[in-house]
Design brief:
Blueprint lengths: L1 H6 L46 H4 L2 E7 L3 H18 L2 H8 L2 E2 L2 E2 L9 H10 L11 E9 L7 E3 L5 E5 H4 L4 H15 L16 H13 L4
Parallel strand pairs: 1-4, 4-6
Antiparallel strand pairs: 2-3, 5-6
Helix pairs in contact: 3-7, 4-8, 7-8
């Protein structure tokens, strides 16, 4: 619990969740099954379907686990397979490229990147702390337990991602996939505000985390 209180002040990188999506506090549920993919704006000129790039089909995940038992690891392995299948799908490509915010094809707090550049950045797998383009997620995951509403968090300057078993244990594999992918996008440098806002749902961590979760349900 002390660790959670210390890291809550790291506003740009701290990632937390609350059990209720409608809670407007600093700890708002990120991967709750009732949260829809945030894409409310009409898209008058959608990018047509096209060939999925080879990097999407070969996308892989490298992971190191701490405090995972056999059951927890099995769930993570299922989540990883879901992530790879979603990334390799044309549906994911289309939804990322056509994502709109305020009537334009863009994400909120996008670091000046277009949707196409964000999609490619995901495929490159180039984390800020591991800047080589390796076409994979590099994950260092640790399970811990806290009674708080924090689902998971990460901090700047380290690769470690912490997942609260209070939520991890009842999560489905697709929910784990979405939550882990959300956290991983912070390692690519994408940020979001700590306090809830409608705009925050359209940031890269939230919007793409929701996409991974919702598109991943078909693979469970």
């Amino acid at each position: 619990m002390g660790k959670s209180l210390v890291f809550i002040f790291l506003l740009c990188f701290f990632v937390s969740c609350n059990e209720n999506c409608q809670n407007q506090s600093a700890e708002v549920q990120e991967q709750n099954a009732n949260c829809p993919i945030p894409n409310p704006d009409p898209d008058p000129d959608p990018i047509p379907d096209g060939d999925v790039p080879n990097e999407a089909l070969t996308f892989d995940v490298n992971y190191v686990l701490t405090n995972f038992d056999r059951g927890s690891e099995d769930k993570l392995l299922k989540a990883i397979e879901i992530i790879k299948k979603v990334i390799g799908s044309n549906e994911f490509r289309s939804k990322v490229l056509n994502f709109t915010f305020q009537g334009k094809k863009q994400f909120f707090e996008n670091k000046g990147l277009s949707n196409e550049e964000i999609y490619q950045k995901l495929l490159d797998g180039r984390e800020d702390l591991k800047p080589d383009v390796d076409n994979q997620m590099d994950l260092e995951l640790e399970l811990y337990y806290s009674w708080t509403s924090t689902v998971g968090y990460t901090t700047p300057g380290a690769m470690k991602i912490y997942l609260n078993s209070k939520f991890y244990n009842p999560f489905t594999p697709s929910e784990v996939a979405g939550n882990v992918f959300h956290e991983w996008t912070h390692k690519l440098g994408f940020e979001h505000a700590t306090n809830y806002s409608k705009e925050r749902d359209s940031t890269v961590p939230y919007a793409i985390g929701y996409l991974i979760r919702d598109l991943g349900r078909q693979y469970e």
